[in-house]
Specification:
4-stranded mixed sheet, 3 helices, globular, alpha+beta, 16% helix, Immunoglobulin-like
Length: 206
């Protein structure tokens, strides 16, 4: 009976894997415009037809370097509860992203959902970097803590987006008992959208 059950389980796993949805991946070089053409990170309602972005630069930075360079009012930065990150260590991957809106009018609105963005080091695929919204929100106060990014039709806007890998310092850990991991130089992959086309930008940092 156990053997039969295991056989059924293996057959089920095989069926699911064979029939799982897969999406084409398009890779882009740093500095190349990525036309989103309806692809989205989280929800179809992002309505990205007519939107594009270009990653114009990338670098590793410390939290203090980011605050000094991109945050005009340091008091607008609210650290995570219990965060003991070394503020001088290179724990951020900062991407200079130009967002362009080529839509024709305000009635055709769209946005980019930064909560769906992720970056992975090519040599450490188990490490997952997400937008560090506590720092990012301080650098762009007009977004008022929102994850959705939009610009007016016919305009562009450049943001400096910090990505970090947060890790619980112990397990089980209290909420907020985290620190940012130091990042190495090398190759990274920035996933801009997940479906129906997965747009990925190849990043190289020193």
């Amino acid at each position: 009976m156990a053997i039969a059950a295991m056989g059924l389980f293996a057959a089920r796993v095989s069926f699911v894997n064979e029939n799982a949805l897969s999406y084409p991946v398009t890779r882009h070089a740093l500095g190349r415009e990525v036309d989103l053409e309806g692809s989205y990170a989280e929800y179809k309602t992002e309505n990205t037809d007519g939107l594009s972005l270009t990653v114009e630069g990338a670098r590793r930075m410390s939290c203090n370097q980011y605050l000094d360079k991109y945050v005009s009012d340091p008091s607008s930065y609210y650290p995570l509860l219990g965060d003991e990150t070394d503020m001088e260590e290179l724990t951020l991957l900062v991407l200079d992203i130009e967002i362009a809106n080529n839509k024709q009018g305000d009635e055709d609105k769209g946005y980019l959902d930064s909560i769906g963005w992720s970056v992975v080091p090519d040599r450490a695929r188990e490490l997952w970097l997400r937008v560090d919204h506590s720092l990012f929100g301080a650098s762009v106060p007009q977004i008022d803590g929102a994850f959705q990014l939009s610009v007016k039709p016919g305009t562009t806007f450049t943001v400096h987006v910090p990505f970090s890998a947060l890790l619980n310092k112990r397990f089980p850990a209290a909420m907020g008992d985290v620190n940012r991991l130091p990042l190495d130089a090398g190759s990274y992959s920035f996933t801009v959208t997940n479906m129906p086309v997965r747009h990925v930008v190849d990043i190289e940092v020193k």
